[in-house]
Inverse folding.
């Protein structure tokens, strides 16, 4: 999630204060010819991808969440970025 957040902030700084609008695990995040995020990280415990959900899809902000294997280790109650301690999702949001 830290990689996704850093990529989104890099995109913001390179793209005239605008976040990537397309948040899906199949699309690269590119600004001009520079690739900011090649693809979303893979789960280190399996060959599959994490379950990602990026719900706020606007140029002004974002919130991306991943479903936790440990349902009491997250910071959000759902992938819509309702923040609360000890829950099943870990989310990051825009820093600007």
């Amino acid at each position: 999630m830290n990689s996704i957040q850093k990529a989104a902030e890099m995109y913001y700084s390179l793209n005239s204060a605008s976040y990537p609008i397309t948040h899906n695990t199949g699309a690269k995040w590119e600004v001009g010819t520079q690739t900011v995020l090649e693809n979303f990280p893979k789960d280190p415990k399996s060959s599959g991808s994490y379950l990602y959900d990026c719900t706020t899809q606007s140029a002004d902000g974002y919130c991306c969440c991943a479903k936790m294997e440990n349902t009491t280790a997250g910071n959000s109650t759902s992938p819509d970025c309702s923040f609360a301690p000890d829950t099943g999702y870990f989310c990051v949001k825009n820093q600007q």
